[in-house]
Amino acid sequence: MKWKKKNDIIVVIMEHGEDFLENIKKLIESPELPELAIVVTALGMLNDVEMGYFDGEKYEIHKLAEPAELLGVSGLITKDTDPPYHFHVTLGKKDGGVTGGHLLEGKVWNTVEMVLLVEEIKLRRIPLRNLKLLDFS
User: Fold this and answer.
1) What is the CATH code of the structural domain delimited by 2-136?
2) How does pLDDT run across 29-81, given as a tens digit for each residue?
3) How many Å separate Cα 12 from the centre of its chain?
4) How many DSSP H helices and E strands does the chain contain?
5) What is the spatial distance between Cα 71 and Cα 10, in angstroms, rounded to a whole number?
6) Strand, coil or helix: what is 56?
7) How do beta strands 85-92 and 98-119 pair?
8) Burial of residue 19, with CB atoms counted within 10 A of its CB: 0-12 exposed, 13-18 middle, 19 or more buried
9) Domain PPC, which positions (predicted)?
């Protein structure tokens, strides 16, 4: 993974075979990353994906072993919270079908190109009904 920050924008380029969430964790460790990063856009491909659907009590896990087009990512990186990120993905499958959910795992296939908007807004997570919801510090 490589990335560059200028003003309030970070451009992230991930490479084939890298772990998407491990890369995010490395980004979080950087002192250059402010408190909050918002995904503006992300595209590329993912492989070996695990997504979750929250049924009100727990996540139902759905797996996609084949490479899929990353049609969209929405989410936040909140540096000092647990968990420090929350992503939802939409994936286009080879057969033209579409799937998506809460991203739990995924490997980069070919590339992932992501743009983040960063800001110094301090946030926290509060537990509620088996979830950790975002709140202001």
Assistant:
1) 3.30.1330.80
2) 999 999 999 999 999 999 999 999 999 999 999 999 999 999 999 999 999 89
3) 12
4) 1, 9
5) 20
6) coil
7) antiparallel
8) middle
9) 4-137
